[in-house]
Design goal:
Length: 454
């Protein structure tokens, strides 16, 4: 008899736990849906103000409410960068207006020197994902024209691209560049080759990636700056921050997108070295700092908003343990002042550079970790970040970067990546998983999803 009572009590407890679990889960689903809707509304606030004050230009200056063009004439940076976010959020009217503007007004036959890296990740990447999502051939033609105009950048003695190329004359300048700029091109140029059937784009961008890798130090690290005429390093500081970050990202992603075994092998040869020399254990926390590429000696104990992409890459490559630990450190950095600084000394926990440029990396990592673990902790993390993001960066006419995360003073800047990446990753974190089939795409470093079709 007591056994039967115990069994009934157990079954009742199990039922209550099951029902409560179900409730909590559906409650979480509801909250997430509401959050996704909030992100969409706030994205629309940024986009509507771009339309109102800066339509047809590269970007909106959100405090002075005027337009800004990077090179004195517009390359439609914001519409091209934001197009796939508009499509994913089902903002159909806005997406249609952006697409019409792009196909009617965008022309690359311009006598201006442009930064090969930025134009590749934002414009080439945006046009290619826009084409894949809409099937509009005119977007692919624009991408091909742009790809052809960027090609002279690769005409250096080493095959490493110059920093700038003139879109009309094909002249090049700036021989000193860095691994992020030489190695973050293959997803875009490779996709262009696959879509046009012209291998030259893939070959040039792959050579640039391989030539960067070949110049790693005997320890296996790459440095901060390199001269493309001589192939010599001009700054041997090694890290995973801006200037190097997406070089590692593309080694792994080019393997995933194209099945290119050379990329996988270069990744396998590089990543253990990154863990060996750049990872740092402090107070039981995991951080990644700087070290000299030749000696492996620690040079700086700094980490920042750009480094915060690394948990996403670790998660994508299957290293969830490190990804989770590093994300916890990134979140600690975020919470220090209620929003992350550009650079932090993780040893002293003092801010080294206090600006916040509406950067996406920490949100990107939160999204990847949520995708791979399903752990509600990451949606809670994302909610805290989104609340802070709105609280400090929202203005009457868009979203503004912060000059200083301590005082929260705003600055007159709304980079196109806020619309291409930051809002997109916030949205995908909370939206239902059907919004985008994660495993069917690879995001370029500007959050443009490229189809895994090759
Ligand atoms: C973006 O242009 C890209 O994510 C790039 O890889 C790094 N910097 C910005 C966002 O912070």
């Amino acid at each position: 008899m007591p056994d039967r009572i115990a069994l009934i009590a157990f079954l009742m407890a199990a039922f209550v736990a099951f029902a409560m679990g179900g409730c909590t889960k559906s409650r979480q689903g509801e909250d997430a849906q509401q959050l996704a809707a909030r992100v969409r509304t706030e994205f629309l606030h940024a986009w509507n103000n771009y339309e109102r004050y800066a339509w047809g230009h590269d970007a909106l200056r959100p405090l002075s409410k005027i337009a800004h063009d990077w090179y004195g004439q517009s390359l439609l940076m914001t519409p091209v960068d934001a197009l796939d976010t508009l499509i994913l959020m089902r903002l159909d009217g806005e997406a249609e207006r952006a697409r019409s503007l792009i196909v009617s007004d965008l022309s690359f036959d311009r006598d201006i020197y442009v930064k090969n890296f930025e134009i590749t990740i934002r414009l080439l990447g945006g046009l290619l994902s826009g084409y894949e999502l809409t099937g509009d051939q005119r977007l692919l033609s624009l991408a091909e024209d742009l790809g052809n105009r960027l090609m002279p950048a690769f005409n250096s003695p080493t095959g490493l691209p110059y920093g700038y190329v003139n879109l009309h004359t094909g002249q090049i300048r700036d021989a000193v560049t860095n691994p992020a700029e030489t190695g973050t091109l293959l997803l875009e140029f490779g996709t262009l080759s696959k879509l046009t059937g012209k291998p030259v784009f893939y070959e040039k961008a792959k050579r640039a990636l391989v030539e960067t890798f070949k110049r790693r130090s005997p320890l296996g690290l790459v440095g901060q700056s390199i001269n493309v005429d001589t192939g010599a390093w001009t700054n041997t500081d090694s890290h995973i921050s801006g200037g190097i970050d997406s070089y590692y990202e593309y080694l792994w992603k080019c393997w995933l997108l194209f099945g290119d075994k050379d990329c996988r092998d270069m990744w396998n040869a590089s990543i253990p070295v990154v863990h060996k020399y750049l990872a740092d254990e402090i107070r039981g926390e995991l951080w990644y700092g700087h070290a000299d590429m030749q000696t492996g000696k620690r040079t700086e104990t700094t980490y920042g908003a750009l480094d915060a992409f690394f948990p996403a890459l670790l998660a994508l490559s299957g290293d969830l343990k490190r990804a989770r630990r590093l994300q916890a450190s990134s979140f600690k950095m975020w919470n220090l002042h209620g929003i992350e600084p550009e650079t932090l000394d993780y040893k002293t926990m003092r801010v080294v550079a206090g600006s916040y440029h509406l950067r996406p990396e920490i949100v990107e990592s939160t999204y990847y970790l949520y995708h791979y673990t399903g752990d509600p902790e990451y949606r809670q993390m994302g909610k805290k970040m989104f609340d802070d993001f709105v609280k400090y960066c929202r203005t009457d006419s868009g979203y503004a970067a912060l000059a200083d995360v301590t005082s929260k003073q705003q600055r007159d800047e709304m980079e196109s990546f806020a619309l291409a990446e930051t809002f997109k990753y916030f949205y995908l974190l909370f939206a239902s998983s059907e919004t985008l089939q994660f495993d069917k795409v690879i995001f370029n470093t500007e959050a443009h999803p490229l189809r895994r079709a090759w």
